[in-house]
Design goal:
Strand 12, helix 7 and strand 13 form a beta-alpha-beta unit. The chain is 28% helix and 28% strand. The longest helix is centred in the last third of the chain and has 15 residues. The strands form five sheets. It has a seven-stranded mixed β-sheet. A seven-stranded mixed β-sheet has the order 14-13-12-15-18-20-19, sandwiched between helices. The protein contains ten helices and 20 strands. By secondary structure, the chain is α/β, with parallel strands linked by helices. The protein has two domains: 174 residues, Rossmann fold; 184 residues, Rossmann fold, CATH 3.40.50. It binds S-adenosylmethionine. The site of S-adenosylmethionine (SAM) has 20 residues, from helix 7 and strand 13.
Length: 389
Amino acid sequence: MNQPLAIDKRKTLLVPQGEFELHRNPRDDSLQAWDAADEFLLQHLHEIQLLTRHGKVLILNDAFGALALALADYPVYSWNDSLLAQQALRDNLLVNGYPVEQVKTNSGIDFPSVAVDNVLIKIPKTQALLEHQLYALRGILHHDSHVIAAGMARHIHHSTLELFESILGPTTTTRAFKKSRLILVERDHSMNEGQSPYPDSYELVVDRRYRIVNHASLFSRDRLDRGSRLLIEHMPVDAGYRRIVDLGCGNGVIGLIAAAMNPGAELTFCDESFMAIASAEANFRAAFAATRRAQFKVGDCLQGIAGLSQDLVLINPPFHQQHSVGDAVAWRMLKDARRVLVDGGELRLVGNRHLGYHAKLKKLFGNCETIASGKKYLVLRALKRADSE
Ligand SMILES: C[S@@+](CC[C@H](N)C(=O)[O-])C[C@H]1O[C@@H](n2cnc3c(N)ncnc32)[C@H](O)[C@@H]1O
């Protein structure tokens, strides 16, 4: 007798639009690649029969592509600041038999400029990003457009609803489903005052004054992070390093100071966020104009950078991916740093002292030295030796 096919519930999204295999990026099938808010939104769309064959759908902040994949038979444009999220969508389209071009995606920070009929928003971790997106929507919503947002109830605060109310118009929320909620927005076209305050900026004084520009999604957008400050204060100076990478560069503040302290070096800035790379590039150009060469790469860790090619890698590792916390990305960054370093090259990082980077570096590089120790943060350095692991 044939055995019934076992459905792996962690990988199979079952919604009224169909059954889809869905994975995270980086792949980790012990964790589900969607949440109850995705299911709730897809169920709701099915019940109200809102989407039509030709109506343009804009999806914002879809973490691993659950929404865009389930709605891929409609004309969908998926905007995401995260390249990892976009790669997840592409992989998930392919796994489910769609070509990657089935869903249009952004390749920079710009929003689509054409009018859209339906906008579906997953509430992002950074409220500033949501604020920026709501202002951008004003320009592309027409009189019959619908806006529906979805999120886990713990990510929807009073201030979140106020943003919708004050930028777009009257807003209501639904009952909860598995601790998630929908936000239904009615666009009031008479509300047009104000504009996105992003990118914004702050002044940083180190060897000179810098104005640090930050797009909406950025880490530590309004001031220098204390960890980054400790690393900047313990930057190698005139160390003879010719090729330096700022990995997970955010606004590029670490690489910027590395460039100032090492005038002969060529810098590479890497981040998986489009807004981070746009900010880092603006900040570097403002500081050095055309006098210094640098590369700016949107990529997963050090994707696209050759092995054995860099003298120094600087990192202030992330501890979040979207709404989840963990050190998996940091660990991948350390391994990739080791790959690109020349023999004798250095990895210098700042990390929260409780996160155990010392042990990780020792394991990976066979050595680790504490360069500075603050209340909360440590600056550590590891040297790549030809004979280490
Ligand atoms: C703690 S922030 C540090 C930002 C900046 N270096 C600073 O010190 O202000 C970590 C950065 O890592 C980036 N990041 C997260 N995952 C990444 C990945 N897989 N590849 C590249 N960058 C990543 C985030 O977008 C974020 O900008």
